[in-house]
Each structure stands twice: as C-alpha cells, then as structure tokens.
C-alpha cells in the first residue's frame, strides 16, 4: 500500500467556501474515490490556506487515472479550481505532487 501526501494552497479569500464544499462532498464523488482506490483519504487545512492531503492506495497513478476517467471528477475539479492559488491552468487533481516520505513509524 502506498501512502501519498501532497500540498496545495487554497486562496485565503476562498477558505470558507472550500470548507463548506468539503462539509458536503457529493455522494457520487465519494463513491468514485472509493471505487478508484483512494483509501483513508484526508484533507487538512491550515488557516492561511495551506492544504495537506493524505491517502493510501495500491497504485497512485492508477487511482488518479481512474478518477480522471469519471464525469463526476471533471465537474468537481471545474468547481474547485478557482479556489486554489498557482495552478497555472491545471486542475487541482493534476497539481497534486506527492511529497517524498522520509520516515514512517509502523
């Protein structure tokens, strides 16, 4: 099982909206994440907009590709994109760059 952690930056003026949207993630989005191999997926948000994401998956690239193939993800990403800083025209899910794990206490 791969453990994946990534960082993104939510625009400070959109943090409240970001929190609201994640308080009510669409059921079909939840189902798609689970079906494509996203397990123990968590998001942590600091008050300045720093977002830390964590998930476990058998194959991160396959999990990403699985979500990219879903219609619900396209709708979700289109709505979420404007809430982030420095995406340079990419979708939020395309901007996720896994951090290198340097320690894990099993």
TrEMBL record:
Gene3D superfamilies for this protein: 3.30.70.100
UniProt cross-references to InterPro entries, sorted A to Z: Dimeric_a/b-barrel, Rham/fucose_mutarotase
GO molecular function: racemase and epimerase activity, acting on carbohydrates and derivatives
Domain of life: Bacteria
One of the GO BP terms on file: rhamnose catabolic process
Listed PANTHER family: L-RHAMNOSE MUTAROTASE
The name this protein goes by in its record: L-rhamnose mutarotase
Organism: Streptomyces naganishii JCM 4654
Source species taxonomy: Bacteria, Bacillati, Actinomycetota, Actinomycetes, Kitasatosporales
């Amino acid at each position: 099982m791969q453990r994946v952690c990534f960082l993104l930056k939510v625009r400070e003026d959109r943090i409240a909206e970001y929190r609201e949207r994640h308080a009510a993630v669409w059921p079909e989005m939840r189902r798609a994440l689970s079906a494509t191999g996203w397990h123990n997926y968590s998001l942590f948000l600091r008050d300045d907009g720093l977002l830390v994401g964590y998930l476990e998956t058998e194959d991160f690239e396959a999990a990403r590709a699985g979500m990219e193939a879903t219609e619900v993800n396209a709708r979700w990403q289109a709505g979420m994109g404007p809430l982030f800083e420095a995406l340079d025209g990419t979708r939020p899910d395309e901007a996720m760059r896994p951090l290198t794990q340097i320690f894990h206490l099993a």
